[in-house]
Amino acid sequence: MLGRKKWISSALVLSTIASLTLSTLEPGFQSEKAEASALKIQPLESVSLVQLSVPNNQKAMDKLSELGIDLTHRMHVENGMLEVDAVVTPSEMTMLKLYGITVKETLITESQLNQRAAERRAAIQQEKQLTSSEETVNILRATHFTNQSDTFLYVEAKSTSGASTSTILTATWTENGTEKTATLQRIVDAGEYLYHSFMLPVAEIPSEVTIESSLGGTATSKVTEWLGADKPDKPKKHYVKNFVDHYMDPTEINARMENLVKEYPELAEIVEMPNKTNGYRRQAQATIGTMQNAAVAVTSKAWGHEGGNAITLELKKAGAADEPLSVGTSGNKITVTLATDASGNAKSTAKEVVDLLNAKASNLVTATTYRGNAGNGIVEPATANLSDNLKAPASVSREPAAVKAIRIGKHRDGSKPGVLSYSQEHAREWVTPLVSVETAERLLRNYAHDKDTRKLVDNLDIFIIPSMNPDGAHYSFYDFNSQRKNMTNHCSSAQSDNGYRNSWGVDLNRNHNVGSAFDGYVGASTTNCTSSTYAGPSEHSEPESRNLVWLANQNPNIKFAMNIHSYGGYFMWSPGAYTPERETLPRPSAGEEAYYWQASDHILKEIKKHRGTVILPSRTGPIPDVLYSAAGNSADFLWYEKGIYAWNFEVGADLWNKETQRWELVGFQPPFEEGHEEAMEFSNGLLGLIDVAYDYSRDNKAPKSSITPNGGKYDDEVEVSFHTSEPATIYYTLDGSRPTYDSQKLKLSGTREGAESLAFNKTTTLNWFSVDPSGNVENSYEPGKNKKYNSKTFVIK
Q1: In degrees to the nearest 10, what's the CA dihedral of 683, 689, 690, 694?
Q2: Catalytic choice (650, 677, 678, 681)
Q3: Partner of 156 for a Cys bridge, out of 140, 212, 425, 509, CB 3.0 to 4.6 A?
Q4: Is 650 a catalytic residue?
Q5: How do residues 748-788 score in pLDDT, each as one tens digit?
Q6: What keywords sit in the KW lines (predicted)?
Q7: What is the pTM of this model?
Q8: Which of 766, 763, 765 is nearest to 715 (CA)?
Q9: Strand 312-317 vs strand 382-385: parallel, antiparallel, or unpaired?
Q10: Which run of H or E residues covers position 730?
């Protein structure tokens, strides 16, 4: 706090100082020889916030008061002197120096204060501009849903003045004859205003909700059901499910998939991907010493299971005075004899021991000082057995692993549309492979007697990768439950002692080449090898991520993908990353976005059927709109590089506790009873995606489109909106030319909003055509060739 602001004439200061007698100051608080009255009167001066160094006594403080110095509330004692913050002019600084009071540090200058004031005025002006224009409130969603144990009202609304924090949106609705209200929360990400929203349990579903803004804008919308029910399912006789009964590590999962293929060789096969992992293996290590500057970290040259675990290291003091430092090896035993001084005390430093080990025992180990320090401390005698610290049983191989997919389909030759599901990119997400296993079991074991299953398997080419990250997953099961990354250690020697072993690895969902951290996108680290979102030393540096690329390249028939993660109950799609300025990767066209939403509606309804779990509307949508930026994620690679409609599950939706009126999280490794339920409901969802792919494969009906208004003559600017019979991408031109696939696409009007409209303020001919996701073109138009496109002219007088 600055206290009162002071703009003081030096004349007043000088007249005050000239009348003072210096005898009131204690010894040591003497003026310099210059006379205060000799200083020239200066015009009005600027002020600065400074820290003064003042003798620590009451008389000195009294003198500051007498001088009229503007003090803040902050002061403390440092080295026998008072440090006091004050607002002073340059002349006052000079006068204070005459009395032994000096400026220790300038904290804020007046120019800086003026700059902040200007920033404030600019912000106020911007706010005025936002609020002075006529405000529009748009209700994006007004929905209700019942989630397991309670019924909720969820509303999203957007104000044209929402970028201003002073814009308050309030919802009003009627519930059991009583008017209810709620204030909407302003949702902002990386500085960008997205929308306002609220979600509350309700005793009765309202028919409509009204949103009013503090600036006067208002809007009303009917309340509809989120994930409204499809036609009731006919009971399925003999449809079997519930195939998972415990969490499974990748070794178990691979055996399960291979047994399925043996049972159903006419319907399934194993696809072994070419890039083997680094393996569930580590070098053996030990850190000897308790003090950092006197510690030695040793790493075996051999993998732990290939001999490194058998190495022992002994540091012992020489038995006599003035003995030199020496190293000897016998088989797997290394003995370091520490040098002694004239008194017989050990005198070898950690750095000296490290250098000698690297020179004399390099066939067995490499040695470093502790995390790169100078190592100038004296090493104490000690012994250590090196270990790779891995705890998995012998049934888990330590060798590089082949990542495997099970491919399911009556025709597995690329002639049918492909669907890809992959899980456990992040090792600790134990539920996700269960979703994959359960789905594979259902598809194969229900094929013979369930016609709906049979139509999926007969008409699609389905790839399921239960564990993308087998090394990390094994490490999570047996060594460190919270392991997220793979096990490849790209750290330098300074970060490679065994105390860092739970932080090594690469986040496989940050290692891809689209929207990556290497290209400046947010949400991963390229420099911190122990970061939980370390993107690796380069794009696609990891064999696991290269396997996904290989599979997509080898199978261009793949049109749909699902990346299964946990937890939180999200359902998302591209774009998945943005820059520090929150510029996202290119948004899908309005038609593509509509298709994402349409497919999502079906998939999420299938999830809900198991136990009523509703994926919340606030957690459904493009990744940056509902979660965060994830630079270099795999779904973005599939969408932007391969044109695959790619979604992301985050299984494990929060559970609503009706008694406490709170949402309760489930975590990465919930009790299996909960994990089983998550596997069941999200297997439903994955089969829902496969349904979407089936409908895609059968779609041969071209879309139809229209515009409002439908051409004609207008006195003023006209705004044109498009309507399509199904989700479809609109390609259009405004210069009279034939539209092609290179023409402009109709975009979204904004975050969480629908298609844009086109505004014409001069005579314009609009030519366009639409294409649905299955590739059906409106009116059988051959883009750029014949004239079967739509055309309307708007004449503006």
Answers
A1: 160
A2: 650
A3: 140
A4: yes
A5: 999 999 999 999 999 999 999 999 999 999 999 999 788 99
A6: Hydrolase, Metalloprotease, Protease, Zinc
A7: 0.81
A8: 763
A9: antiparallel
A10: strand 729-733
